[in-house]
Amino acid sequence: MDTDHSALGRALDLFDTTPAVGAGLPLWLPDGAVVRAELERFALEQALASGCRRVYTPVLAKRELFERSGHWDKFSADMWPEMVVGGESFVLRPANCPHHTQVFAARPHSHRDMPVRLAELGSMFRSELSGVLAGLNRVRQINLDDAHSFCRPDQVVAEVRIALDAIRHCYAVLGIEVSRYRLSVRGPGGRYLGDDEQWRTAEGQLREALDAVGLPFVVAPGEAAFYGPKIDVQVTDRRGREETLSTVQVDNNQPERFGLSYIGEDGRRHRPVMVHRGLLSSMERLTAILVEAHAGRLPTWLAPVQLLVLPVGERHAGAARELAAELAAAGIRAAVGPRGSLPARVREAHEHRDAYVAVLGDAEVTDGTVAVSVPGLRTREVLPRAELVERLRQEIAGRRRERTVAGR
Ligand SMILES: [Zn+2]
Known about the structure:
Strand order of the largest sheet: 3-7-8-15-12-11-9-10
Bound molecules: zinc ion
Mean pLDDT: 92
Largest sheet: 8 strands, mixed
CATH architecture of the largest domain: 2-Layer Sandwich
Number of strands: 20
Strand content: 25-35%
Structural class: alpha+beta
CATH class of the largest domain: Alpha Beta
Number of domains: 2
Distance between the termini: 23 Å
Low-confidence stretches: none
CATH topology of the largest domain: BirA Bifunctional Protein, domain 2
CATH superfamily of the largest domain: Bira Bifunctional Protein, Domain 2
């Protein structure tokens, strides 16, 4: 099987595109939706663990919002054209940040409430040309694991460190290797907002956080966002192409442009700093990277089918359904394999990258055991049904990367 995520994703029934919907607008098929839902749940848990609260905001807004944020001026070439309704202009958002400034601005804040951390798995839109759209890497709707911390200036470095720690934790769980950390700063040219002093301070804060966490990094002039410098976490795909997965950005410009404030200890209004954090990146890019990194053989917690039960003969079908029901009751995604010759069905499970295969024949039904194997590995373990359920449950709950039953 091809190891490119686009071919693998189609072969494994994760996603597809159709001419009627259009290029760059992938459809998540039921198996792919399982993977994405697990990743979204993981993203939310990580956001809550770092003190974020969840919000939901609309995917469009008045053009004015993006004029104010600077996107309309600096970024409109990548945005979809505006839509006029009732004499008002609306656009699909190219980023979630401006909406989050409005969530912050909707209520007053005291210095004691800071930082205010908001998280959303938000959809945003890019007017990519159809010629450059391939698989999940370049898409027109990006579903981003996004968070914004509105903090006091003295909290910026700590917020960046929290983001870096969370990134490292997530990559360890997901089995993603960082190729390098990149400090992306301004380059020559004038497409940036804000003054030199703000940029120097923000860059210094990012450097300080990287040093404090002990991460080596390279400096990349010209790779900053138009509103602030950022740390890009770079990963390399199977073709050796480097791309950015996670980002952490320090932004003084959007708080200023939106007139955000909190009440300080002195009773006066102060300007917060906005730390943007894209932890798991977009669901599209992350899935592409994971599918390639694991050659389609995802960790069990992400696998659409976690255990495929194969009855040896027709007379074992009832026991197979019973075992599948027992697993489902424990929250494990189990399926009963189709009819046909056993070797052919095991091969099919292998090709479909099912996490485990359990064979049920006379001996197993009599003993109350199951013979479990990992498709692709020449190992097998016979164990009592209750033990199988418990071990799988733990492997999945712990988001373990290695198979814990019938492993090497
Ligand atoms: Zn942002």
